[in-house]
Amino acid sequence: MALQFFPLHGFARLLVAVLALVLSASVSAALYKSVGPDGKVTYSDKPPMNVKEAEKTERIRDTSSPGDPEAVKKLAEQEADFQKRMNERQAGEQKAVDEKKERADLLRRCQDARTAVRQYRDTGMTLYRAGEKEGERAALDMETRLKEADRVEREMKEAGCD
């Protein structure tokens, strides 16, 4: 009987060691959540290879036991926090792009207005305005040109041109 006990005992130790190894690996495993460019959420045990997806990846560690009723709630809260951060980041990026476009548009309009003021004030050029009839044009007199130059300068100040 003693001879049968040792092989069974060795097998039991091996079984316990294997189970401990498997359980410790599953407990320490990380879970990665990535949001793709199309908004699709992917969960994986490995971080994504794509650099853009890696920026939108969050490592989630679930240390709660599988029977924990709060685990789903915690995961949902993490998901909501992640979505909120991503939305805030996207809104910030879009705001920066919009501000850059607005600034470029203002600079272009200011430059156009400066050119118009120079043309109105330059006495060496003859400026024409469309007339009453189609194809008709009328030359602007100096008084009208100066009034237009003043009007454009006021608009430039209101628009914030330097």
Question: How would you characterize this protein structure?
Answer:
This protein is mostly helical. The chain is built from four helices and five strands. The strands form two sheets. It has a three-stranded antiparallel β-sheet. The longest helix has 52 residues.
How many distinct helices? 4
The beta-strand count equals 5
Please outline the major beta sheet: 3 strands, antiparallel
Helix percent band: 55-70%
One letter per element, helices H and strands E, the order comes to HEEHEHEEH
Mean pLDDT rating: 76
- Cα(first) to Cα(last) distance is 101 Å
Widest sheet, order of strands = 2-1-3
Rg over alpha carbons:
36 Å
How are the SSEs ordered, and which strands pair?
Blueprint: H1 2-28, E1 31-35, E2 41-44, H2 51-55, E3 57-60, H3 70-121, E4 128-130, E5 137-139, H4 142-159
Antiparallel strand pairs: 1-2, 1-3, 4-5
Helix pairs in contact: 3-4
Give a concise summary:
With 162 residues, the chain is mainly alpha-helical. It is 63% helix and 12% strand.
